[in-house]
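Hi R.,

Here's the input for the uracil complex you asked about:
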Amino acid sequence: MANVHPSQHPLVAHKVTLLRDQNTEPKKFRELVREIAALLTYEATADLSTTTSQVQTPLEIAEGAQLKEKIGLVPILRAGLGMVEGVWGLMPSAEVWHIGLYRDERTLKPVEYYNKLPIEPTVSVCLILDPMLATGGSAVATVDVLKRWGVRKIKFVGIIAAPEGIHLMQEHHPEVPIHLAVIDERLNDSGYILPGLGDAGDRQFGTG
Ligand code: URA
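And here is the predicted structure with uracil in place:
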């Protein structure tokens, strides 16, 4: 699938297996979500632009690099929140913007209930964070909001995706790269990914 990047890294595969395990407790689950988010972000940001800079070492001047672009992290509530700390560890000056969406049970469409984005975009790259790309409805709606805000470079970073969610994203936003740990088989009738890991929000926040 074009523009879909499942990780090939053995560390990611190992950690996702632990994440799926129904016996993994919320504390360990949160730790794994943070670690996997950092590993996937490392891969997802390999094409970020840099400017050259010089740095004085204790011995002499060395040529260096600095990230050129302002990065925004946009966790999809609520499960995406657990990914923020892992990514922030890598890029502490990233801004975190929250956009709240819920699914209208009658129309099945995402409805925006929280959005405090300023009029002008303050970042040039946004990483949308959601461990589970299931139907894809929230991811598509979040990209819609970010494009309207004026962000030109948007990437999706998730842990497990269903083919249904990937297809919806590619239908609406084919230029947005999708970085994942793994692509699973399908959605069940209740919208859960199979084999998946259950409800990623409940498993992080101990509400299951
Ligand atoms: N959200 C989850 O937390 N889990 C799924 O399987 C699908 C959506």
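One thing worth noting: Residues 7 and 29 are 19 Å apart (CA to CA).

Cheers,
M.
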